[in-house]
């Protein structure tokens, strides 16, 4: 009986995992093997600063090279920026931006990505636009190997410090600064930056995509604050199991639990010669049996 219920639980779990995977897709924003965006560079060198950057595309890779220098007027590092513009597909049902890239400067701490043209009125600077997020590369990956960087939408904020690029109030802390529906339906602009940290910058990109896309628009009010992304699937501590969101796991557990108790009840009420002289224990088991079944 225990083995049969375990098989049923695992079978149900596989069905849920398959359904969850089938319902998700990604939207390619730029593929440098067949680029569709118009790219241009900008930096504090246009304002007399020391930073500079250049961009080229070759062999299916977009290569952004430059250096961020010290900018006396802000008494800190300046910035370099790579802007991509065109018409964009709707990414309002997605949950993160995925960047497939490599770098000869993976330890650089000023990589950022921004999208959109929304303005934060708090800054009172009309040229400060877009939702921005910090991202990091894994320095343990060889510079010749491409790695996948995932940036959840909750890391982006409209409220960021124009001197450093750091978020003042992240989206995960206040939905007012999260990407709005109109922005996600057409981001209009996409940018890669070196900002808030001085040093050499190198980023070689294959693709930029929006991932974990589904059927319904993103609802930041219902998005778990501690979400983490791993490769193509997201996990939230205490809210997932093998990449399956906890609420789906709970649904499977309820179904399997109902079937389990139904069969137990039938066993207790059915005539059985060997049980005729035995006392049947009808004390309910404690909650959590579905986890025990999964471990057998």
Automatic annotation (TrEMBL):
Q: Which Pfam families match?
A: CIA30
Signal peptide (from-to):
1-22
The superkingdom listed in its UniProt entry is: Eukaryota
UniProt keyword annotations, A-Z:
Membrane, Signal, Transmembrane, Transmembrane helix
Segments traversing the membrane: 241-261
InterPro entries the UniProt entry points to = Galactose-bd-like_sf, NADH-UbQ_OxRdtase-assoc_prot30
Annotated NADH:ubiquinone oxidoreductase intermediate-associated protein domain ranges read 36-162
What SUPFAM superfamilies does the record point to?
Answer: Galactose-binding domain-like
Q: What is this protein called?
A: NADH:ubiquinone oxidoreductase intermediate-associated protein 30 domain-containing protein
Which source organism? Answer: Seminavis robusta
């Amino acid at each position: 009986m225990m083995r049969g219920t375990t098989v049923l639980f695992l079978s149900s779990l596989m069905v849920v995992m398959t359904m969850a995977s089938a319902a998700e897709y990604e939207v390619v924003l730029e593929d440098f093997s067949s680029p569709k965006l118009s790219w241009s560079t900008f930096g504090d060198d246009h304002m007399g600063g020391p930073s500079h950057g250049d961009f080229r595309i070759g062999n299916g890779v977009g290569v952004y090279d430059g250096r961020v220098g010290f900018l006396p007027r802000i008494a800190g590092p300046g910035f370099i920026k790579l802007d991509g513009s065109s018409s964009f597909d709707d990414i309002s049902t997605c949950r993160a931006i995925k960047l497939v890239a490599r770098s000869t400067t993976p330890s650089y701490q000023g990589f950022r990505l921004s999208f959109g043209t929304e303005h934060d009125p708090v800054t009172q600077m009309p040229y400060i636009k877009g939702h921005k997020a910090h991202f990091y590369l894994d320095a343990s990956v060889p510079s010749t190997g491409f790695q996948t960087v995932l940036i959840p939408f909750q890391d982006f904020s409209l409220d960021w410090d124009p001197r450093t690029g750091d978020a003042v109030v992240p989206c995960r802390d206040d939905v007012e600064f999260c990407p709005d529906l109109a922005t996600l339906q057409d981001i209009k602009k996409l940018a890669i930056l070196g900002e808030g940290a001085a040093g050499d910058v190198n980023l070689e990109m294959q693709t930029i995509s929006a991932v974990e896309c589904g059927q319904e628009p993103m609802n930041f009010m219902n998005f778990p604050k501690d979400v983490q992304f791993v490769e193509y699937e997201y996990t939230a501590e205490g809210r997932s199991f093998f990449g399956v969101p906890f609420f789906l796991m709970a649904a499977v557990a309820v179904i399997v639990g109902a079937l389990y108790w139904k069969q137990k009840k039938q066993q207790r009420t059915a005539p059985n010669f060997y049980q005729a002289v035995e006392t049947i224990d009808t004390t309910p088991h404690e909650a959590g049996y579905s986890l025990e079944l999964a471990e057998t």
